[in-house]
Design a protein that fits this description.
Helix content is 15%, strand content 27%. By secondary structure, the protein is of the alpha+beta class. It has a seven-stranded antiparallel β-sheet with strand order 1-2-11-3-4-9-10. It has a five-stranded antiparallel β-sheet with strand order 8-5-6-7-15, with no helix packed on it. Strands 12-13-14 form a three-stranded antiparallel β-sheet, with no helix packed on it.
């Protein structure tokens, strides 16, 4: 009798271990190649994103899987998470792609420009969709009003934070330009921001949750209410406008 009773037990144990292994493999695959939760640390992307907000990032946008997924490349306006390679305490940065490979760009008098190959003139990029009043038309290189021109290499991307007045980005080589360049490559980019979930630390947010608009009071910025933006999150812009 003992032997007969052990058979169902062993089968159930085997089925449980098998299912557990399958679940673990699926989770590893999803987190490695599809989606991953990410929490923003700091106010560098203010006010598109806030400190402590959660986002979902995806890796498949820039993958190249033969016969399955055609490779795509970062586009102007994409918000990406990448490895800056500065030090182990700053493993990941989140920034917005502003200029693309082969482009010639200019920062002057707080404005950002792109050289138009056909006319030979610099066209100003209008960024009011994602820069607040404290940052729109206030982009400087080390607070200088003088002109700074960058020629993007064939594999380079120029990225900046939305909080232009309080961040270190490609304008200063992410730290110091003594031993670094101002550009990152596609290999540096790990994820693209997909969905903004807002501030969802339930332990800290149960009390300040506001039922009437489904928002949370931000834990460190009292006047900010964070509402999940879902698929209206400003992670990319396809309708860039330029003016001469």
């Amino acid at each position: 009798m003992a032997t007969k009773e052990m058979k169902p037990f062993l089968k159930e144990t085997f089925d449980f271990v098998r299912d557990l292994i399958i679940i673990i493999l699926i989770v590893i695959f999803v987190r490695s190649y599809l989606f991953m939760p990410f929490q923003i640390n700091g106010q560098s992307m203010y006010d598109s994103y806030y400190d402590k907000q959660f986002i979902i990032v995806d890796r498949f946008s820039y993958l190249d899987i033969p016969l399955v997924w055609k490779e795509s490349f970062p586009d102007r306006g994409d918000v990406v998470v990448f490895r800056p390679g500065i030090d182990k305490d700053k493993e990941y940065f989140i920034k917005r792609v502003i200029w693309l490979p082969w482009e010639t760009i200019k920062i002057e008098n707080g404005r950002v420009y792109l050289l138009d190959d056909e006319s030979g003139e610099y066209l100003e990029i209008q960024e009011w969709d994602y820069l607040d009043d404290n940052n729109d038309k206030k982009t400087y290189v080390r607070w200088s009003q003088w002109k700074k021109v960058f020629e993007i290499p064939d594999d380079g991307y120029f990225v900046m934070w939305d909080n232009r007045n309080a961040s270190t980005d490609a304008r200063t080589c992410f730290s110091s330009c003594s031993s670094r360049t101002s550009f990152i490559t596609k290999d540096n980019i790990i994820w693209k921001v997909w969905v903004d979930l807002g501030y969802f630390n339930l332990v800290e947010s149960i009390y300040p949750f506001k039922l009437w608009n489904l928002s949370f009071s931000h834990p460190t910025i009292s006047w900010i209410d964070t509402t999940p933006k879902w698929f209206s999150s400003p992670w990319e812009y396809d309708d860039y406008q330029f003016t001469q």
